[in-house]
Amino acid sequence: MTDKSNELEIMRHSLAHILAAAVKKMFPDAKLGMGPAIDNGFYYDFELPRSLIPEDLKTITSNMKKLIAGNAKFERYEMPADESLKKLENEPYKQELINDLQNKGETTVTFYKAGDFEDLCAGPHVESTKDLPPFKLTSIAGAYWKGSEENIMLQRVYGLAFSTQKELDDYIKMQEEAKKRDHRKLGKELDLFVFSELVGPGLPLFTPKGTIIIEELKKQVEKICREYGFQKVSTPALAKIDLYEISGHKQKFEDELFYVTSKYKQQHVLRPVICPHQTQLYASKPRSYRDLPIRYMESDKMYRAEKPGEIGGLNRVYAITVEDGHTFCRLDQVKNEIKGLVKIIKEFYSSLGMMEKFWVSISLRDPEHPEKYIGEQKDWEKSERILQEVSDELKLNGVRCEGEAALYGPKLDFQFKAVSGKEFAIPTIQLDFATPKRYGLTYTDENGQEATPVMVHRAILGSYERFLVLLLEHFAGAFPTWLSPVQVKILPIADRHNQYAEKIKEALGEIRTEVDDRTESIGKKIREAEMQKIPYMLVVGDKEVEENKVAVRAYSKGDLGSKTIEEFTKDLTNEIKEKTK
């Protein structure tokens, strides 16, 4: 964290302190929870005598500004933990925090005072309220105390804070734009996916249009991967629990496993990951060093029992359609394998116009918690060194991020920034020495000796559900032509032009085309096609029929002039093939 970002975090944390003071002024009997700084702002949790409403934010903001205008100093002092429990006898949540500290061996606690308000807090804070940055309270939400569903739900007030008013205004504007790009809103408007109460939450149903997008993505990623030697495989969604006990995933996903039992008392698990299945394809017969590398790819379902409160839209679902792949190779092949995967990622994301802004994380172990990982120390050191070398050789400028590694090995995680400003990490390359050893995978080396392969995991687009969220937010629903569910909408001006419209549709062949032959004005047809974000509209009337042409309109660009059917078909076919737009 840079000095500047640390300074901003301190200011945001100080604003949380002032927020608590303002709420206490409004509700003297309020019970205080916790109030940390977070990305882009701060929050504070409260137990209050009534539910807050959006209008309350104005009153709280006014109270905060009055406190800030008073130019109060933040004063720090310490107190024995036992004495502080008496001091906070009307603050049960603060008392619980003090008890937690005592259980860790702490005998004193820290308070901060600003004006008449003081709060249990480790700090640090700004020197005075005059040092606080521009802020805006944004929302009210429910939040379980300490994040546990077993605890009481408190009311959380969120706020934004930035160093300057311009940064705050720009962020608010970006958030407003993000609301327009909300995937749930766009998914409904564009008829891409639905949810059913009978099917259940977290189990999306994809419409014909939504399925087209997923199938096109599959075709594109599989086409690129085949060029680099990947072969498509298919494995079952069920497995014995033994499979995941060996890999270590049972322990990691213990609370997220779906168990399936038949009337014959057979028990299986819906897979939480795909990689263990693919190890068994490799293990199905003897392998020689000449056979390696062996590359498998698969797009299929896996299942995780997410917490009900975390299920929402396509971001967190129970049934996850993943694009997954694994390479089994020799140690001397690892670097070239990783470099090939970097090329695949760049090629795929270039086809979506998304390679302009990205950075790479070298995701490493948390050195303070080695128990979170499997594998041998020497293998971790070797794999982390290899990823650093690849980053250096390809000039990826990888940023080392401790604690972000996978269960079995370090990763190269590609972080992209969408048009909405949101950053996302989907493509990943993971180096794994541990899993092949756990499953006893071997090959015969050039000396006739038994050796263990290295396993390289890769995900190019991750899960199709989350990737669709990204695409909707990035493109605001206006997909590139090659990916759009409907690529062309033919708009006959009058009923007498319907037959010519059908002739055009037939001439367009495999291009995804619809004809709007409703008895509506051409203006309404164009407006509705624009709302559906159709890449191209072909308007046909008497003149077009007579000249055997079409009047071409492009989404958000307007009229592109008149073309023959052959010219338009050729141009569009090339555009789709080259994925230039």
From TrEMBL:
Entry cofactors: Zn(2+)
The protein's enzyme class: ligase
GO molecular function, one term: metal ion binding
Catalytic activity: tRNA(Thr) + L-threonine + ATP = L-threonyl-tRNA(Thr) + AMP + diphosphate + H(+)
GO biological process: threonyl-tRNA aminoacylation
SUPFAM superfamilies per the UniProt record, alphabetical: Class II aaRS ABD-related, Class II aaRS and biotin synthetases, ThrRS/AlaRS common domain
Pfam families: HGTP_anticodon (PF03129), tRNA-synt_2b (PF00587), tRNA_SAD (PF07973)
UniProt EC number: 6.1.1.3
CC cofactor note: Binds 1 zinc ion per subunit.
Chain positions recorded as Zn(2+) binding sites: C275, H326, H457
InterPro entries cross-referenced by the UniProt entry: aa-tRNA-synt_IIb, aa-tRNA-synth_II, aa-tRNA-synth_II/BPL/LPL, Anticodon-bd, Anticodon-bd_dom_sf, Thr-tRNA-ligase_IIa, Thr/Ala-tRNA-synth_IIc_edit, ThrRS_anticodon
Family the UniProt entry places it in: Belongs to the class-II aminoacyl-tRNA synthetase family.
Assembly with partners or alone: Homodimer.
Annotated protein name in UniProt: Threonine--tRNA ligase
Gene symbol of the encoding locus: thrS
